[in-house]
C-alpha cells in the first residue's frame, strides 16, 4: 500500500507498507521486483526514491513484525525523513530500533539521504496501542502527531496514562531528541 509521496531536487520520495510476498515497481516498460519476503506473514514498511524520469534510484524495506511507514518528507539538500509506527522492533540496513519495552508498539522517525544511506532513527513513544498520524518538518524541527490508548512510555522512561484515547503533538529537534511535547486532548481520533 503506497501511503505518502514528497518531491524535491527533481526526485520523488515514496513510502508505505505491504503485507504479502513481493513488491514491484513499473519502470515504464516492465514490472521489476524490489523485494520478496518469500511467504512471510509480516507487514513491512518501504521507502524509496524515483528520479525525474520515473526510474527507481533506490528502495529500502523496513523489516519487523509489523512496520508501517506512513509519512515521508524531503527537507533541504537531500534529507528525507520517514515517520510511522512498528511493533516490538524494526530493522533497516542492519540498524535496529526497539520499543521502550518488548511487546509494545512504537512511533518512529528516521532519516535517509538522497543516495539511500540511513542516517539514524529514533523511537518517539511506545504503548500497547499507538498510531502515527502526521508529520511536518520545519527548519531543524519535526512536528509529529500520534495517538495512543491507556498509556505512552517515552525513551527517557516517562510514563503518561489516560483512561481514553489521547492525541499528542510532539516537537522533536532533528538531532533525534525530543525538545517538547504536549497532549492536545482526549478522545480525539485524527488530526493532520
Overall residue-averaged pLDDT value: 79
Decide which structural class fits the backbone: mainly beta
Strand order of the largest sheet: 1-2-5-6
Q: Helical stretch count?
A: 0
Low-confidence stretches: 186-192
Radius of gyration: 16 Å
* SSE string, helices as H and strands as E: EEEEEEEEEEEEEEEE
Strand element count: 16
Shape: globular
Specify the biggest β-sheet.
4 strands, antiparallel
In angstroms, what separates the terminal alpha carbons? 20 Å
Strand residues, percent: over 45%
The helix content is under 10%
Topology (elements, then pairings):
Layout: E1 2-8, E2 11-19, E3 22-26, E4 31-36, E5 43-51, E6 56-62, E7 67-74, E8 80-87, E9 89-92, E10 95-98, E11 105-112, E12 118-127, E13 130-138, E14 141-153, E15 159-173, E16 178-186
Antiparallel strand pairs: 1-2, 2-5, 3-4, 5-6, 7-8, 8-11, 9-10, 11-12, 13-14, 14-15, 15-16
Amino acid at each position: 500500500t503506497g501511503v505518502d509521496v514528497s518531491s524535491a531536487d527533481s526526485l520523488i520520495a515514496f513510502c508505505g507498507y505491504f503485507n504479502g510476498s513481493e513488491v514491484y515497481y513499473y519502470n515504464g516498460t516492465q514490472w521489476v521486483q524490489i523485494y520478496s519476503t518469500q511467504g512471510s506473514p509480516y507487514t513491512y514498511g518501504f521507502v524509496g526514491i524515483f528520479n525525474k524520469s520515473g526510474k527507481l534510484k533506490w528502495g529500502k524495506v523496513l523489516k519487523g513484525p509489523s512496520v508501517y511507514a506512513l509519512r515521508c518528507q524531503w527537507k533541504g539538500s537531500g534529507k528525507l525523513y520517514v515517520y510511522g509506527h512498528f511493533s516490538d522492533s524494526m530493522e533497516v540496513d542492519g540498524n535496529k530500533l526497539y520499543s521502550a519495552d518488548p511487546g509494545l508498539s512504537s512511533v518512529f522517525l528516521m532519516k535517509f539521504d538522497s543516495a539511500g544511506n540511513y542516517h539514524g532513527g529514533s523511537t518517539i513513544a511506545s504503548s500497547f496501542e499507538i498510531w502515527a498520524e502526521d508529520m511536518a518538518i520545519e527548519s531543524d524541527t519535526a512536528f509529529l502527531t500520534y495517538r495512543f490508548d491507556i498509556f505512552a512510555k517515552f525513551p527517557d522512561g516517562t510514563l503518561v496514562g489516560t483512561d481514553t484515547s489521547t492525541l499528542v503533538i510532539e516537537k522533536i529537534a532533528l538531532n533525534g531528541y525530543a525538545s517538547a511535547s504536549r497532549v492536545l486532548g482526549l478522545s480525539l481520533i485524527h488530526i493532520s
